[in-house]
Amino acid sequence: MDELDQLLNELGAISAGAPASPTATSAPTPSMPAPVVAPVLPPAPIFTEALPPAPVFSKQPSNISPPATAPRVDVLIVSPLADKRPPAPAPAPRPAHANDADILPASSRTCASCHEPIHGAYVVALDQTWHPAHLRCSVCEKVLGTGTFFEHEGALLCQQHHLELAAPRCAYCSNAIEERCVSALGKTWHPEHFFCCHCGKVFAATDGFLEHQGQAYCEEDYLALFAPKCAGCVRPVLADTVNALDKVWHPACFACAECKAPFANGTFFPYEGMPYCEVHYHAKKGSLCPACTKPIVGKCINAMDKRWHPACFVCSFCKVTLNKTPFKGHENKPFCNPCHTRLYG
């Protein structure tokens, strides 16, 4: 305790600035060094670097999400003209235009008529933009902006002037064709005015027609009026034909005019513009032997207003050849004189 009291006295003397008493001085114990009093300073500031939180990756490789703690940032883009420009009107319904023009939302465009910027709605026509109020008919100046209009040779026309100046004309009534149109024979027609010029039947959309000298005919009337007629049955010939004697025939109708037998070998005999088989040709010509009923080719005997094969001209009773013998006739049959006398006196 004495040593501790002495140490405390020395510390008090030092702090008071007075020298310590020699009697009170004693060497410190070697095992207890004197404490060193350091000045008390304010703590040095510690600077730390704020780092952003590490991103958190989800387990799905196709979907990377931001950290759950990342704040949401909303970006607002403000146009420099926002305080001077009125709000754009809502887009109007698209009108039905002949050239498929559109009323589009407001945009920075130039009007093809006044060459001023377009800040509101505009119309596209002829590959140009227009104020709706400046799109006008080239003839009557009627505003076309929200109505139906037509383009013709680079000019814009209202419906009335399109009908008067550019619409096709019906070849029958000469009036303008406003809606559906039929193009045929190098002309245009109202559908109800394109009909058969013979019977008046209106051609339906799926019907065909036949033309003759610039006129349209239905098939029935065309065939009846202009198709070639068969010389045998007098009906129109539509498919296969036989041309003979300057006429046309159905193959089934080309036969002997007398017996109607077809010409098996293709050979026929013309007489007075009609075809005949050999037998009936000679019958018509009077060259059919009355005895054997066969055609006479070559030499013949003219007797009793008929022609006979020389070998067939014999007495009807005794069969003697009469080509160089006097004969007499009875009931269109020849007889030698003895047989005629014996039989008929």
UniProtKB/TrEMBL annotation:
One of its GO terms (cellular component) is cytoplasm. One of its GO terms (biological process) is actin cytoskeleton organization. SMART domains: LIM. Its main location: other. Residues 18-35 have a biased composition (Low complexity). GO terms for molecular function: actin binding; metal ion binding; muscle alpha-actinin binding. It comes from the Eukaryota. The keyword Transport does not apply. InterPro entries: PDZ-LIM_domain, Znf_LIM. This is LIM zinc-binding domain-containing protein. Residues 15-35 are annotated as: Disordered. It is found in: Cell junction; Cytoplasm. The keyword Cytoplasm applies. Residues 109-168, 169-227, 228-287, 288-345 form the LIM zinc-binding domain. It holds the Pfam family LIM. It comes from Allomyces macrogynus (strain ATCC 38327). Keywords: Cell junction, Cytoplasm, LIM domain, Metal-binding, Repeat, Zinc.
